Amino acid sequence: MYPEPYACSRWRIRERAVPWGITTIPPSSRHQMLLVAVNRAAAFNVAARWVLHDLRSPAQSLTLMADLIAEPSEDLEGILREACANLARSLELLARVVHPPTIGELGPISVADPIAFIADLQRAGRTHASVELAVDPALPAAAGSARDLEHALLNLVLYATEWLRSRDGAVIRIGTRLESDRVQIVLGWSGPPVPPEDEARLFELPAEVSVLDRPLAIGLPIAWEVVKLSGGTLTYSPDEGPGPCFLISLPLWRPG
C-alpha cells in the first residue's frame, strides 16, 4: 500500500465534493488553481525548512572560528572558505524557494536546471534517502514552465521521501532522455512498486482528507495537474523500475 497521507480518491475524472467547503471542483476551474496554490505553499515550506536546517552547519562553523584560531594546526583559511561556500549555496537555495520563477507564458526550458534545484533541496534536508542524477546536458529545450516543473518534481520527491521513510540506504533516481519529439524525466526509487490495485488511484484527490489541514496529501494529483498545464503528461510507469517510477513527458520546444 502506498503511504497513507497520499491515499486518494477520484479527482480529475469527474466533479466531486471536498471536505473544506468547496462544493465541486470542475477540471481547470479556479478552485483547482486554489488547490495548486495551497499545495505549492505547503511543499515549498517543507523545502524552506530543509534549507534552514542545512544553514546551521556553515553558520556554526563560522561561530567556532574564534575557538579554531587557538589551534594553529588547523587550516583556518580552508575551513573559512568551505563554510562561506556552503553558506552561500544554502542562501542561494533559500532565495530560489522564496522567489520562484514568475508565472507566465509557456516557453523553452532546460529540464536540467529544475532537476538540479530540487535535488539540491532534497540533499539539504539530509533525509535518509540519497539522490542520484543521470541528466543528459545535451537535451534540447522542452516547452513548458520551469515553475510548474519544479513544483511537480518537488511533490514527487516528497512522495518518495515519505515512501522511503523507514528504509535504510534508500536512493531516489532522476534521469532524462529524448524520446521522439518528447523530453522525458524518469523519477524512481528503491523499494517495492505500488501494488497494481492502487495504481489507478495515484493521481486522484483524497476523499477523507482536509486539504487545508494536510495540503501535502494532494501532492500527486497536483503534480499531475501542473505538468498538464505545461502541455505534458505525468504517468506511473512501473516498467521503468526497479521500484516505483514516475514519468514526466514534455513536448519539445518549437519556435514559432
What does this structure look like?
The chain is an alpha+beta fold and 256 residues long. The protein has a single domain, classed as 2-Layer Sandwich (Heat Shock Protein 90). Helices cover 42% and strands 15% of the residues. It contains 8 helices and 7 strands; from the N terminus they run H-H-H-H-E-H-E-E-H-E-E-H-H-E-E. It has helices spanning 30-54, 56-63, 65-69, 76-98, 112-124, 146-163, 196-199, 219-229, and strands at 107-109, 130-134, 142-144, 171-179, 182-189, 233-236, 245-251. The chain has a 5-stranded mixed sheet with strand order 2-4-5-7-6. The protein has a two-stranded antiparallel ribbon with strand order 1-3.
Classify the secondary structure makeup into a structural class.
alpha+beta
Give the mean pLDDT.
76
- Unreliable residue stretches: 1-28
Q: What is the CATH fold-level name?
A: Heat Shock Protein 90
Helix-strand pattern: HHHHEHEEHEEHHEE
Count of the separate structural domains:
1
> For the CA atoms, what is the radius of gyration?
20 Å
Say how many strands there are: 7
Short description:
Helix content is 42%, strand content 15%. With 256 residues, it is α+β, with helices and mostly antiparallel strands. The chain has a single domain (4-251), classed as Histidine kinase-like ATPase, C-terminal domain (Heat Shock Protein 90), CATH 3.30.565.
